[in-house]
């Protein structure tokens, strides 16, 4: 069978990356996002410092890379966004497995709604850096003057300082998506990723020469090996790897589907994985060298500082540091510019999952999908996250989308692919047939057994914790609506979209390359069943 036969049955040829470099840069641009800069340094510090790198690397090798390869194999072999890929994976027996793909699409849809707001904040603070507009009370400025944070609930009191940059970011994202994969998403990543690396590297170099920088690095990298005996440290490592690689919620499935038939998968996957981890370590160096300076200025230990992760680190602690350091405005411009660029490239990958899913289901062009999906998303994003309750809504939805939605998606993908459908040999064969770095039975064991078990444990632990302890002191009714309600939305929307008729059926499809005769009759029968359905 030819390399292009059986692609879709659609009138339009499938979009493609221009080459391997474009794909790698785009995949790295997706993986390197806000979490690399504001999450990894604090997580490492709180979980054993330098010793955390041990479980971190173990998690990367045993879960991160295997699941990344699984996503690549699904997207590349079955030539579609997540709903198409999972439907074809299920074949004639489990066509309804498409709903797992839509579950992932809905995760991306919701993440995009609030992720865009954080980019808008970063863009605002990029402008504020020129005159240090936040003043001396950075916490008061963020929650008061800038975000005007209210109590948990639902407000239609819009905050113009958030609303305006938010709309601008959405318009920019829609325009990029409308240009398609190669001329839009890839081109932005080719421009932004080198700029991001240069800007952040300059920031790190500057931070290393600050007073107290060594104290900050010692706080981050001094190993506490006793922490390795704590199961929660290992869970934190798997969690960090899992969330930072853009795996298990449709992104890498979609990105791999845009690669040519004869395209290396595993070697670029290793490049993406280790590039992402390298940037996280670089971010840790820059952030903690800067925190060391801040502690030095205040005459306290780094351990006594607050706000070492997330929103507090980026929009409270860092502005305070910028105000005190020599050449602070330049440092602020570099930091918030890097934050905005990293966030924007990741946002594009999240939105591309949604756009691709609707393109394939409803026969839309990239431009039509970008405009329709983008406008609906922008309106919802503005209504939910540009008001005085936006920060609280963001915090709640993000916690449930990441810790429940994505982890559940990963567990289900592994269980269905390896345990129910027993597609492990076929997916492994596909990876080896097109790649230079070959995977063996160990990959099947890691992606199909270890990862679902570890992630399943994480999921159960998190669900129990949220039910028993609640979250962040927010009212139970609010968590029920904005937290658990988000997960219910994922499920209901996935089932509804699965039930909608396809504009062009994706079932007249045969995976390439065909399985060799030496593979078991059961595997061959399972594979061709989907092609004949």
From TrEMBL:
Keywords: Membrane, Transmembrane, Transmembrane helix, Transport. InterPro entries: Na/ntran_symport (IPR000175), SNS_sf (IPR037272). It is found in: Membrane. PROSITE patterns: NA_NEUROTRAN_SYMP_3. Residues 513-533 are annotated as: Disordered. One of its GO terms (cellular component) is membrane. It is a multi-pass membrane protein. Signal peptide: none annotated. The chain crosses the membrane at residues 21-40, 52-75, 96-123, 158-181, 188-209, 233-258, 270-296, 330-358, 370-394, 400-421, 442-465, 477-500. Residues 523-533 have a biased composition (Polar residues). PANTHER family: TRANSPORTER (PTHR42948:SF1). This is Sodium-dependent transporter.
